[in-house]
Structures are given as structure tokens and as C-alpha cells.
Amino acid sequence: MEARQVSAALSAVRNKTDKNDARGIAQILLTGWFSPVHMKSREAHNIRALLNCRKALLHKTIDLANKVRGLLKIFGLRLLKNCPAWQLK
Predict the structure, then answer these.
(1) Is the whole-model pTM more than 0.85?
(2) CA dist., res. 43 & res. 63, Å (int)
(3) How many whole angstroms separate alpha carbon 81 and alpha carbon 70?
(4) CA distances from 87 to 16, 19, 37, 84 (A)
(5) Which residues pair with 88 in a beta bridge?
(6) Other C-beta atoms within 10 Å of 32: how many?
(7) CA–CA separation, 46 vs 28, rounded Å?
(8) How many Cα atoms occupy the beta-carbon half-sphere of 64 within 13 Å?
(9) Which pLDDT score, from 0 to 100, does residue 45 have?
């Protein structure tokens, strides 16, 4: 069930207790007044987590390369744009 839909249905309840919430959810289920929600698989969550970690590592690598490039520029050393840091121009 979608949480926003259930929350909207239960907001009309005067006394907000766990017991009344359970009754309200049971009433929603009995009347069929809900829309089913798609749950992603565990594999999809794992892939998403790996992609997020890869993205974070890529950003850190780019930030570090830019920091080294900036520090070396102070001393008159210039690095090529898309080359590893040890290849000086």
C-alpha cells in the first residue's frame, strides 16, 4: 500500500493511537481502497548501491586529480588534460 494514501485516509481519525491506526488500515484493506505498490528486488537495490558507490569514487578521483593539478600549477608544472598525473606536459 502507498504510505501517502494510507496517511491521508487515517488523518480523519480523531484519536491517533496504534489501535485506531490498525483498525483504519484493516478497514482500507477490507474495502479495497488502496493501490498496490511495486517493490524493487534486492538485486535492483544492490545494483543501485554499487552504482552510487562507483559514482562517489569517480567524483573523489576527479576532485583529487584537480587538486593535484592545481597544486602543481603553482610551481609552474602543467599536466595534460586527460592523462595520468605522472605525465607532465
Answers:
(1) no
(2) 30
(3) 12
(4) 67, 69, 53, 6
(5) 79
(6) 6
(7) 33
(8) 8
(9) 96
